[in-house]
Write a structure and sequence with these properties.
TIM Barrel; Rhopdopsin 7-helix transmembrane proteins; six-stranded mixed beta sheet; eight-stranded mixed β-barrel; 643 residues; Alpha-Beta Plaits; binds ligand C2E; single chain; binds magnesium ion; alpha/beta; 3 domains
């Protein structure tokens, strides 16, 4: 009987080609590439032994018994290893931890261990194969175990990809699944038709497929420094985070690299960053170095080892205390070094990225960003999560703070103030979360929630009857920059069927000055519908009063800090008085906020301030309480009559 060896010859040819490609184009320092190389080498050797054993099996009488046994043994053992290698490769490729270390056996090695044991015992037990009295090669019952063990590894590889499906980019996932399917198919075909020796051939084609499609080297590495790029960093880190590994990331930022790029030219700086990247790379073999953007490197340790990480950080620190020497040039980089422990410091890729991209203030040449600086960041990240949750689950409440009219002695309006209470973080002040919401864009949604709630209250509560002229609503800087702000506001008041004059929008002083034209435009449109405007926080920025008044604010709200400062010293008191006088001269109405004492009230009333707002009257109240408060204060009975 002569085996058909053509497929094997092709398989060997393809494997040789693949090995050459891997050696010339891949970075075999990279674990997954190393694993891949081993698989292909195995395929190559299997092919050779397959041919050799096929020849020997066809002419068994020509070969010594030992050679006959040995060739078949080698082929089957190599062949048995490939499935596990494939599994290891799939895991490594997904960025998962897997160690092949015989001193620390892992459960995943069990099927292969059984196979090897059976193979070693085969000369005595003949469970896998044997030679009958005519020296014909025959299969024993355990040959099926060989297929089963291959099947187990392929199944494990599949489960692995399935388990991490959420964090694997879809293209990679599709490819991995295709390869797994191809692997499975070869095992099945081989089992059903043992005489068609296409298995190795199929395998080598699969490897070639992996080679050309899974790793696109240019997309993996930075073109200048040739270490991994930002995209690889994100992918690698994300999968490692998802698999719950612990590791450290050291971020090195050359903060003044732009200065050197401008003065020394791009070419030179490219060479320098190349050198720095490879210097970093040489520090620890097990770690990976990434070029995140020009002059920003991330160094990822393999495991979490405090001593090692501290040592690395110190090496970086010491290195950049000195000048970086490039040819004859001595370059004085200013650097920032931050050590991030994953998952203790951050546990999502989004947070890690914002932490890395963050600007940290620095003064000296080298600056180590301390872990406690992440604290504020962590708080911010936590608040950010709460914001998203609050939007989804409608957890925001709108409260109203009464504003008192000094002429009539009644409550004249109320300012809508957003409130947020979280189960875990408790009360979160808008001072804190509005800024964060402005950064991540959720402010738009929050603004809408507040505005619509205000419209609803105006519609349901008949505020006119309560003696309220309007409700003040704060606009954030981001809302003021929206082109369709007026459209939205007008559309909403129409939807609720309320009158524009029942709304007064508060714009912060700094915004009012920055986005003059766009804002002016929106304000003009809204003003046509009767909406009025207040300038909020007056006195905290640098306003060009002429401009501001030209924009037609109806009311100016003097910031509480101005009032409180006046309590403390004489010149601040003069400032408060002259500010009030100046606004009055310009014929605008004035609100002073932060009125906490009777003395405040008396002084401000005496100075002719129109409206007062502050804890002396009331804090912001929930809808029902607010209505109740105003009703009592303004002596309105529930039929709407003034008492
Ligand atoms: P703001 O618009 O200047 O609002 C006045 C702030 O001063 C409110 O703080 C109010 O509770 C507080 N306040 C009033 N009288 C007194 C007083 O007598 N003593 C003290 N200690 N505080 C007083 P709150 O509610 O914490 O809001 C802070 C800031 O957050 C607001 O300042 C406003 O800029 C922003 N904000 C609140 N709600 C919203 C909203 O719905 N949208 C937007 N964009 N910003 C909002
Ligand atoms: Mg306000
Ligand atoms: Mg204010």
């Amino acid at each position: 009987m002569i085996y058909n060896i053509h497929y094997d010859v092709c398989s060997i040819a393809i494997s040789i080609l693949t090995v050459i490609c891997v050696l010339t184009t891949k970075d075999i320092e990279r674990q997954e590439n190393k694993a891949f190389l081993l698989i292909v080498m195995n395929g190559l050797l299997s092919g050779i032994f397959d041919i050799a054993s096929a020849v020997a099996n066809s002419f068994p009488a020509e070969f010594p018994r030992f050679t006959l046994e040995g060739l078949n043994f080698m082929y089957l053992v190599l062949h048995a290893c490939v499935a596990m290698q494939f599994y290891i490769y799939i895991r490594l490729n997904g960025g998962r931890d897997i160690r092949f270390d015989l001193r620390h056996p892992s459960p995943y090695m069990i099927p292969l261990a059984i196979t090897l044991a059976v193979m070693l015992l085969n000369p005595f037990l003949h469970w896998v194969y044997y030679f009958d009295e005519n020296l014909r090669y025959c299969h024993g019952p355990m040959i099926y175990w060989m297929y089963a063990s291959g099947g187990i590894y392929i199944l494990m590889a599949f489960l692995d990809v399935a388990h991490y499906r959420k964090t694997t980019p879809w293209k990679r996932k599709a490819l991995l699944l295709a390869f797994i399917a191809a692997g499975l198919l070869t095992v099945v075909i081989q089992m059903m038709f043992p005489n068609i020796l296409i298995e190795l051939f199929m395998q080598s084609v699969v490897y070639l497929g992996i080679l050309v499609s899974i790793d696109d080297e240019d997309a993996t590495y930075d073109l200048v420094t040739r270490v991994y790029n930002r995209k690889t960093f994100l992918e690698d880190t994300q999968v490692r985070m998802a698999s719950d590994s612990k590791f450290d990331i050291i971020v090195l930022k050359l903060t003044n690299i732009d200065y050197y790029r401008n003065s020394m030219g791009i070419e030179t700086i490219n060479e320098v960053t190349y050198d720095i990247a490879h210097w970093l790379d040489s520090l620890d073999k097990a770690a990976k170095v990434y070029d995140l953007e020009s002059g920003v490197f991330a160094f990822r340790t393999d495991t979490q080892d405090e001593v090692l990480t501290d040592a690395l950080r110190d090496i970086l620190n010491e290195q950049f205390q000195l000048d970086w020497i490039h040819q004859e040039l001595a370059i004085r980089f200013n650097v920032q070094i931050a050590v991030v422990h994953i998952p203790d410091d951050v546990d999502t890729i989004e947070n890690l990225v914002s932490l890395i991209d963050r600007q940290y203030v620095s003064t000296g040449r080298t600056r180590i960003v301390e872990a406690n600086e992440f604290e504020s960041f962590r708080r911010e990240a936590a608040v950010e999560q709460v914001l998203r949750k609050a939007i989804e689950q409608k957890l925001f409440k709108v409260y109203f703070q009464p504003i008192w009219d000094s002429m009539t002695g009644k409550i004249h309006s109320g300012e809508a103030l957003v409130r947020l209470i979280d189960d875990e973080l408790g009360y979160i002040s808008p001072e804190e979360f509005i800024r964060i919401a402005e950064h991540n864009g959720t402010i738009i949604k929050i603004g809408e929630i507040v505005f619509e709630e205000v419209c609803r209250v105006i519609r349901d509560r008949n505020i006119e009857e309560l003696g309220l002229e309007f409700i003040e609503v704060n606009l954030s800087a981001v809302q003021c920059m929206q082109h369709d702000l007026a459209e939205y506001i007008i559309g909403t008041i129409d939807e609720y069927g309320i009158d524009g004059s029942q709304i007064n929008l508060e714009v912060t002083e700094s915004v009012a000055v920055q986005n003059e034209e766009l804002l002016q435009n929106s304000m003009d449109q809204m003003r046509k519908r009767g909406i009025t405007f207040s300038m909020d926080d007056f006195g905290t920025g640098y306003s060009n009063l002429q401009k501001v008044f030209a924009m037609g604010y109806d009311i100016v709200k003097i910031d509480k800090s101005i009032l409180w400062a006046a309590d403390e010293d004489f010149s601040a008191r003069v400032l408060l008085e002259s500010t009030i006088q100046m606004i009055k001269d310009m014929d605008r109405r004035i609100v002073v906020e932060g009125v906490e004492t009777e003395e405040h009230r008396n002084t401000l009333k005496h100075l002719g301030v129109d409206f007062l707002q502050g804890f002396f009257f009331s804090r912001a109240l929930a809808e029902d309480e607010f209505v109740e408060y105003v009703r009592n204060f303004n002596h309105i009975d529930s039929s709407g009559q003034e008492g």
